Structures are given as structure tokens and as C-alpha cells.
Amino acid sequence: MRAWTWTQWTYHIPFDDLPSKPFDIICRATDTNANSQPESPVGIWNVLGHMNNAWHKITLQ
């Protein structure tokens, strides 16, 4: 595996450990030099989608 490759992963959360109210799951990559993805695409967004590497976030209810 190279430092820049995509990696698919899974994480299993036991049902009893889930909060009773909505919560967010966020995925953010960090490289070996401690550089990480920006929280938001604001400032990096472009029409072609190049370098649009902001955090991925979903809300579970």
C-alpha cells in the first residue's frame, strides 16, 4: 500500500453503544507528515471537482 492510496475499511459499533439521539460519523485522513483533509470544501471547491478532499460526514438517527 502506498501513502496516497484509498483504503476501504469498516468499523462495527455494537448496537448497545449507540447514542439514543442523532450523531455524526466523520472520516478524515491524515498522512505520515500529519497533514489532514480540510473540514469543509469551502475554499477548495472547483467545477471539475479536483482536489475536493474534505472530510466525509454522515448523520445517523
Automatic annotation (TrEMBL):
**Cofactor(s), names only, from the UniProt record:** Mo-molybdopterin
Query: What GO biological process term is on the record, naming one?
Result: sulfur compound metabolic process
What superkingdom heads the lineage? Eukaryota
Q: Does the keyword Oxidoreductase apply?
A: yes
Which keywords annotate this record?
Answer: Metal-binding, Molybdenum, Oxidoreductase
Q: Tell me one GO molecular function of this protein.
A: molybdopterin cofactor binding
Record flagged with keyword NAD: no
Read off the Pfam families from this record: Mo-co_dimer
Instruction: Return the InterPro entries for the record.
Output: Ig_E-set, MoCF_OxRdtse_dimer, Mopterin_OxRdtase_euk
Moybdenum cofactor oxidoreductase dimerisation domain spans which residues?
2-60
Name this polypeptide is given = Moybdenum cofactor oxidoreductase dimerisation domain-containing protein
